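My current task is to audit a protein record that another person submitted. Please read both lines and tell me whether the tokens look consistent with the sequence. Do not assume that whoever made the record got everything right. I have pasted the whole thing underneath without changing anything:

===
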Amino acid sequence: MKQEIDYMNKINFLILLLVAMVSTSTAEDRPNILWFVIDDMSANFSCYGEKAIETPNVDKLAEQGVLFTKAYATSPVCSTFRSSLITGMYQNSIGAHHHRSGRGKNNIQLPDGVRPIPAIFQEAGYFTCIGSGLKNFDFRSLPSKTGRKGKTDYNFDWDTKIYDSHDWSKRNGNQPFFMQVQLHGGKIRGAAEKHYEILEKRMINQFGLQPTSHDLVELPPYYPNDSVFLRDWATYLDTVRITDWHVGQVIERLKKEGIIENTLIIFFTDHGISHARGKQFLYDEGTHIPLVIKGPGAPKGKKRNDLIEHIDIAALSLAAAGIKIPAKMEGQDILSLKQQPKKFIFAARDRCGEAADQIRSVRCKDFLYIKNFFPERPHLMPSNYKDSKLIIKRLRDLHAKGKTNTLTNKLLFSPTRPREELYLYNHDQWQTKNLAENKKYEKTLTGLRKNLAQWIIRTGDPGPEKLDVYILETEDQMNSTGNKAFRENYRRNSEIYKNWFKDGK
């Protein structure tokens, strides 16, 4: 009897050992998931039609994977984008839709059933990391001997332990990893002439490249063809070249470590270029982003023209790792063979710094509909962040001197905005022809207006902050900086907005 028990114990032990070995093997065979998350950059890559510069590394990803031509941010500013990115939820659905909110006394908790996906990856056995992706370069692509964790910028309470390290080299053996390569992107160009000079010298000294020629720059029609604007945009294009270089270096590392074939690479930016009508606004200049996916489960050499929201990246990443997508997640696995193309996608802009606003949009195959909830406020509202930029100072100066054209005056300097905007965005690249009052498109306008209203109800969109919350949040942001001039200008601007609140403007 004792011999039979010993024999059965041995059998059970072997079974448990085999199960453990199979489980370990399964975990190690799962693909690594690597995101490139780039700050402040539109789809100015060769594979997207940019002609002024070449971007061979991102282009190669597109050639070997799938390029999405109609990927859009659900919010065109860093913290709200990232809050929705890391949860796979619309930022409005989780109350994280105001830029840099929930950092002080007004804590924001995620709703039940919503979690940051690094925590989900960890539970599934993944090593989670966030950094530059290179051991000897930082998030600005500058030489560095010390590694650091990358940008998070979430508008809700979260546990820093959801990230194991700044780099996947810290993982155990062949443990699969979820890595976010966070890069400074368009922010590298800075906001002043001295920053332009530094970057131009850096292009020569660090990369052996000549800065992008101003003669190659083609500006949107509402920006003056002015030397300051041309230089700024050329410098921005140099940041695209730097980003492409960094992507190439990370890919080389993956190859040298022999893990490139088992790594799903997802390249995208957090919103469009930081400019007067770009970042923070819902036109293509602010919301259209590049999205390129290459690796296990991704088609090769394919271009997709269906509508994509950036919150889909969370869902497809979990699915690629064999992890069940949370039932409450609003993003979709866009790589699934069962996925149906979206008929409508949505975006929202709310308070950015002291600049309180409420804009919503819905986009279908052909049309972009935008609703301005505060039409009595101008497009170029007081904004300490934007008004500190050389390009905005120059724009205001040219306008004051009567040197801006009719289109610029209409779109950027009108004291009011239309309550509704409608654009045939495929044919109107920069969305300059508002069709909202054109009777020919009345049926389309009515349909999109209704669709947006339904989305607002469906997501439980909280809308603007109450005045007491606005005061609480802006006071916290003012107190978080030691720059006296910044604080005073921010305070003056916030008083304007408080008066607008009181006046119902």
Q: What stands out?
A: The two ends are 88 Å apart (CA to CA). Residues 1-27 have pLDDT under 50 and may be disordered.
